[in-house]
UniProtKB/TrEMBL annotation:
InterPro entries: Sugar_P_trans_dom (IPR004853), TPT_transporter (IPR050186)
Pfam families on file: TPT
TM segment ranges: 21-38, 44-64, 76-93, 105-124, 136-156, 162-180, 192-213, 228-250, 257-278, 284-305
Gene Ontology CC: one annotated term: membrane
Protein name per UniProt: Sugar phosphate transporter domain-containing protein
Topology in the lipid bilayer: Multi-pass membrane protein
Keyword terms, alphabetized: Membrane, Transmembrane, Transmembrane helix
Sugar phosphate transporter domain mapped to chain residues: 23-303
């Protein structure tokens, strides 16, 4: 192999990594606003049914794409269940707790408490993937968590049920991110197979749970179905549910679960401050605002350290590979002479 061939690293290009991260950030921002509009502004009574709509959209879009040969993934058989487990359980848990917490929390508090996803993701990557992190990264995560706790301590709309939902959502998101990264390498699944079979496996149990709890009846008898604005927002939520899940898988595929969590933190900088003025359910206090600022500052520092370290490690690895191959080429030329 020549030295010129070594100039191209084996991993994904920086453009793909950045584009997938940006795509995830935009999708996450938009679906948070749309879901908040449907569940809070229109007071739609069933977050379960909204989740079912997002799952059905995912199934339909990917099935049509597979039939038209636009995408490829393995046909269903018994091996699929073993290949994809436990992602469906984590997926439905993430979906339900995410929608429930969106309905019950103001946008700023929702985005602040979501910061615990980063800490949980780090813990899971340490124990499951055996990764290590620098002191700078650990300190920045500590700042994020500290800021979140300060902001949450002055939440005048404190709700034990809502806080339970959001912390469960953090745990499901972290676990889902780590296991998604592992499952993307499973033969026959790929990005689209993971999305399709996740939704296909859990949509019926979720539908039955919705009917059993009475959520389905509340959704069917909802009075605003005849309103064009509500229907538009509901359909947008269903579409964005698919787009969000695809963007998460894409970001995890080209980057890592931790990078995906970091991108979510950066996105929350915009969402939290915009949420102060949009939504109408944020109760201002200086303690809360200072906590938000500490949390967001920690998120920015964490993002900088993460991407900077990733870039440095990548450049170092490429340089080492170039030196090795150049040495090999030089040795071969010397021996030939």
């Amino acid at each position: 192999m020549s030295a010129e061939a070594c100039l191209v690293p084996a991993e994904h290009s920086g453009l793909l990594k950045f584009s997938s991260a940006l795509f995830y950030a935009g999708s996450s921002f938009l679906i948070t606003v749309v879901n908040k509009t449907v569940l809070t502004s229109f007071r739609f009574p069933s977050y379960l049914c909204l989740g079912i709509g997002q799952m059905i959209t995912t199934i339909v879009v990917l099935y049509v794409a597979k039939m038209s040969k636009a995408v490829q993934f393995q046909d269903f058989d018994r091996s699929i269940l073993l290949k994809i487990f436990p992602l469906p359980l984590l997926y439905v848990g993430n979906h339900i707790t995410g929608l429930a917490s969106t309905k019950k929390l103001s946008l700023p508090m929702f985005t602040v408490l979501r910061k615990f996803t980063i800490l949980m993701t780090m813990v899971l990557e340490v124990h499951i993937l055996r990764k290590t992190f620098s002191k700078g990264l650990i300190c920045s995560v500590g700042a994020i968590v500290f800021g979140a706790m300060v902001a949450a301590s002055s939440d005048l709309a404190f709700d034990v049920e809502a806080y339970t939902f959001i912390l469960l959502n953090d745990a499901f998101t972290a676990a889902s991110g780590v296991y998604t990264k592992k499952k993307l390498g499973v033969e026959g699944l790929g990005k689209y197979g993971v999305l399709f079979y996740n939704a296909l496996i859990i949509v019926i149990p979720t539908f039955l749970a919705s009917a059993f709890t009475g959520d389905l009846h509340k959704a069917v008898t909802f009075q605003d179905w005849s309103k064009v604005t509500f229907m538009f927002c509901f359909l947008m939520s269903c579409i964005m549910g698919f787009v969000l899940m695809y963007s998460i898988v894409l970001c995890s595929y080209y980057n890592s679960a931790l990078t995906t969590a970091v991108v979510g933190a950066v996105k929350n900088v915009a969402v939290a401050y915009i949420g102060i003025f949009v939504g109408g359910d944020y109760m201002f206090s200086w303690t809360n605002f200072i906590g938000l600022s500490i949390c967001m500052s920690g998120g920015l520092v964490y993002s900088y350290l993460t991407f900077n370290n990733k870039s440095s490690e990548s450049n170092t690895q490429v340089t080492k590979e170039m030196k090795i191959h150049i040495s090999e080429d030089s040795s071969k030329k010397f021996s030939n002479n």
